[in-house]
Specification:
The structure holds two protein chains of two kinds. By secondary structure, chain A is mainly alpha-helical. Chain A contains twelve helices and two strands. Chain A has one domain. In chain A, α2 packs parallel to α4, α2 packs across α8 and α10 crosses α11. The longest helix of chain A has 31 residues. Chain A is globular and about 60 Å long. The termini of chain A are far apart. Chain B has a two-stranded antiparallel sheet. In chain B, strands 2-3 form a two-stranded antiparallel ribbon. In chain B, strands 4-5 form a two-stranded antiparallel ribbon. By secondary structure, chain B is mainly alpha-helical. The chains are: A mainly alpha, B mainly alpha. The interface between A and B is large, with 42 and 42 residues.
């Protein structure tokens, strides 16, 4: 039972991280019809910015966090303005490949800065000592995991209110529904695109912090974790925010359980699944779901005119 | 007719592989040039060119499935990997950790293509059900599954971070690892590899050109431009989507097997996401759906690092004086070119060449 609870806690914290990136994916896809492969790169760039401010420059952690996260948001805005604006109306796949190009540029720059040794991200509560952990019953819970979970919940609630109540939130929904109609109603669609990338950048940077914070450290392969939110988005349906959250929970929990139960499973069935199978499990689930339900659980079914 | 090279009196003549004398002339000139190049150029350039030629074979493969048939795939690198490992197991030397049967190249080269094509048929039923981004995402999942298998199937791949040696160069039972003597002149292994790559590159390139004008090629174009409409016109979607994937993987397997012999060793980690993206990038930079595009793209990809090194040498800059290392510069240049080509020249290098050619063809008139 302890193992089960431990796996659940770790799975849920992973789900929180994935959902932050996944919501960014969905926001961009919904409003612009662009599947942005640059999201994982934005996450690690955010982490890199926080690290360089908090550790290299010695700025107090909380200021570094806020500055780093908003800089990543602005980076998203700049990317949209420079690279994606000329591509409006181009085929979906061309734009997806373009975002892969952006991803390569961002990550190469970052890898060069990271170098060979992993980077630390600084310490928000020095008296707890590097984001320590607590034990409830026999389950070890890291503060970082708690922070990731609560941050994800706060963000989901805040975004919900933003979309329901605020002027820009409603404009964003209108744009996602029909770009031309929104334009005709006087909504500045270009500005909405920028705002979407800004929010997606913010979310990615927060996810980046939770991926690389504490003992996890930022290395050249950190982005792989953020990329695993792509299966989450696909499972939920590319254009559904609740879908993205539920997909993240499915992916996160699967990864947690597989990591803890793989050995038992292997000895029970007498097969070997190989090292790091828990990291592959999300993609296998995505593979199966796409075959059974191509639009995911909550995605809008694509209707095509011939 | 001799004075009007662009006048075609029937469809067969227009769709010939070399529709006019100019193309025939340039093909033969380039062929002679590339054969003589082997005896002039240094080993460094010969190896680079052979690598480009094998990469071009792989790039033609992805051009069949993505360029002609319009099916998005991010798993091309995995099929290259499958071809590479088939060749390595059949043609390689067995050691304490890895399998190897030391067979003839006449067996392992076709086998590499056929096994890759057979595995790709797994994706065929899925490709019929899905389209667009969803298909791309399925192939992405397939890619991760494949690279996991490559890393963990130690008796075939040697394991992550260790790798294994590639297939041996044995043709007609003759071991060519030490070169081949022909009339008192010793052809070295590099030169032999160059000729083999050149031969298969031309063969596969002509095969691609032939495919474009065939019934299958027209069916692919129909599926690309509108699969529902194509189906309504009587194109069997399952058969053509499956055959596009199978053919593409065949090209991938053959190209990969040859490239692995040139590089000598294989590490399973190299068949990662970036490698598949590279395949897509090569055809985007070269020109999607064109015959010459993949060749341009492959040469661009292999030659740019070579040129960067060359520039470093003549400007006597050392690598440490630069802010980025060589691999990073390469990645940056490549990422930047993907973006720039997609925004400014979606037809790629082929588009540039096409406009240049037409400019000189019509010179001094601008139309």
């Amino acid at each position: 039972m302890t193992i089960f609870l431990q796996a659940t806690v770790e799975g849920l914290s992973l789900a929180a991280i994935y959902s932050l990136v996944a919501i960014g994916f969905v926001l961009i896809y919904k409003s612009m019809d662009v599947l942005s492969f640059a999201q994982p790169a934005l996450a690690v760039v955010g982490a890199g910015l926080i690290s360089s401010l908090a550790v290299d420059r010695g700025i107090p952690f909380w200021i570094a966090l806020i500055v780093g996260v908003s800089l990543t948001g602005f980076l998203g805005l700049v990317i949209e303005r420079t690279f994606l604006r000329p591509m409006v109306g181009e085929p979906v796949f061309s734009v997806a490949i373009l975002t892969i190009g952006i991803d390569i540029l961002l990550r190469t720059t970052l890898d060069n800065w990271i170098g060979l040794n992993p980077r630390y991200l600084g310490d928000p509560f020095p008296k707890f000592g590097n984001f320590g952990s607590t034990t409830i019953g026999e389950v070890t819970i890291k503060y970082l995991e708690v922070a990731a979970l609560s941050a994800a919940i706060i963000f989901i609630i805040a975004l919900n209110i933003f979309f329901k109540k605020s002027k820009y939130g409603i404009a964003m929904r209108a744009t996602a529904f029909d770009q031309e109609a929104a334009l005709a109603q006087g909504i500045n669609v270009g500005r909405i695109f920028g705002l979407v990338w800004f929010i997606a950048g913010l979310l990615a940077a927060f996810a980046g912090f939770f991926i690389t914070g504490g003992f996890n450290t930022l290395s050249q392969t950190s982005f792989v974790v953020a990329l695993r939110s792509l299966p989450a988005v696909v499972i939920g349906g590319l254009d559904s925010i609740p879908g993205a959250v539920i997909g993240s929970i499915i992916i996160g929990l699967t990864q947690g359980y597989v990591a803890y139960y793989q050995y038992d499973f292997e000895t029970f069935f007498g097969i070997k699944l190989g090292n790091g199978f828990s990291l592959l499990a999300p993609y296998i689930i995505m593979f199966i779901i796409l075959i059974v339900k191509p639009d995911g659980f909550f995605g809008t079914k694509e209707v095509e005119r011939v | 007719m001799r004075k009007r090279p662009n006048l075609y009196t029937n469809y067969r003549k227009e769709s010939a592989i070399f529709p006019n004398q100019t193309q025939k002339f340039w093909f033969l000139t380039l062929l002679l040039l590339s054969i003589s190049l082997c005896f002039i150029a240094s080993d460094y350039w010969i190896l680079l060119i052979s690598r480009s030629l094998t990469f071009a074979i792989g790039a033609w493969g992805i051009n069949i499935v993505s360029g002609l048939a319009g099916q998005i795939t991010l798993a091309h690198g995995s099929f290259i990997g499958i071809g590479v490992y088939t060749a390595a197991v059949l043609g390689g030397v067995s050691t304490s950790s890895v399998l190897g049967y030391q067979l003839d190249m006449l067996i392992w080269l076709p086998a590499a293509g056929i096994v890759a094509a057979a595995v790709s048929l797994i994706l065929a039923p899925i490709a019929v059900r899905l389209k667009g981004l969803n298909l791309g995402l399925v192939t992405l999942a397939f890619l991760f599954i494949c690279s996991h298998i490559f890393s963990n199937f130690i008796s075939v791949s040697g394991g992550a971070g260790i790798g294994r040696k590639a297939a041996k160069l044995v043709i007609f039972g003759k071991n060519l690892e030490e070169g081949f003597e022909i009339g008192g002149y010793l052809l070295e292994k590099n030169q032999l590899l160059y000729f083999i790559s050149l031969f298969f590159c031309i063969l596969m390139g002509l095969g691609f050109k032939n495919l474009v004008r065939s019934r299958a090629g027209r069916a692919y174009a129909g599926i690309r431009d509108g699969d529902i409409a194509a189906e309504a016109l009587g194109v069997n979607l399952f058969r053509y989507k499956a055959s596009a994937f199978a053919l593409a993987s065949f090209y991938a397997g053959v190209g990969g097997a040859l490239a692995s012999v040139i590089s000598g060793g294989i590490e399973p980690g190299s068949f990662n996401l970036l490698f598949s993206i590279l395949a897509v990038a090569i055809i985007i930079i070269g020109g999607v759906g064109t015959v010459l595009g993949p060749l341009f793209g492959a040469f661009f990809y292999i030659m740019v690092p070579g040129l960067i090194q060359y520039i470093l040498k003549i400007t006597s800059l050392t690598e440490s004086a630069l802010p980025l290392n060589l691999g990073q510069i390469e990645a940056m240049v490549f990422g930047l070119f993907i973006i720039l080509f997609l925004i400014f020249e979606p037809r790629g290098l082929w588009g540039i060449w096409f406009r240049l050619r037409n400019y000189f063809k019509a010179w001094p008139f601008s139309y």
